Amino acid sequence: MRKESNEPQAAAPAQAAASGAGEETGESVLVHKSHMDKKSLDLIFAVEQMIKDKQHIEMSHQDLQDRLSHANGQTDRLNRDLKNLGKVIEEREKSIAELEQRLIDKNLKVDQMMEDYRELHGTLSGEVEELKGMVELERQNYAGLLQKYNGMSTEKNRKIGELEEKNERLESELAQMKQKFEALRQEKTHLLTIVNDFTSRLSSPFATGADRLDGVSAD
After folding, report:
1. Residue % of the chain over a pLDDT of 90
2. Does the pLDDT value for residue 145 go beyond 50?
3. CB 37 within 8 A of CB 73
4. Environment class of residue 43 by beta-carbon count within 10 Å: exposed (0-12), middle (13-18) or buried (19+)?
5. What one-character-per-residue DSSP string does 184-198 give?
6. What backbone torsions phi and psi does residue 161 show, to the nearest 5 degrees?
7. Whole-number Å distance between alpha carbons of 189 and 185
């Protein structure tokens, strides 16, 4: 650039020479360069360097364009993926919101159940204490009844023993009375036999005289 500012009039021929050099072969360029002075050669070298730099920049630009196209393709793909991911995230967030609502409902139900359980536990605790008191009272009553039953059972067994002894005694007395009754019956039968015999003997003569009197009357 410094050389171009120092020699502005030589820049145009040099650029034309550079353009022609770009179209000619390497040997023709060398032939032309052999007839040029040092400044022209420096200018040509600078132009060639600029051309090479331009070509390099164009190549770099093309490479960047390719990379940019590839990056744009990746960006488009990533945008599509991001869009799809956004939809998935939206659906997941919707599902999460539904799950959170269900969890809230379940927590409310659990809290209500816990409250009902505490109320029921308090009620049942009171009823259990009342039942314990009733059971203790019934146990005491049962113990009293059992003691009374044991006393009555002992008294009953004693009375049964006394009745059995009395029954045995009465059976023995009855047997003795039966024996006495049988003896009296036999004695009575014997006495009746004696009386009947005695009566028969006493009544026999009177019966014979009466029969005779009846016979005389008939004649």
Report:
1. 21
2. yes
3. no
4. buried
5. HHHHHHHHHHHHHHH
6. -65, -45
7. 6
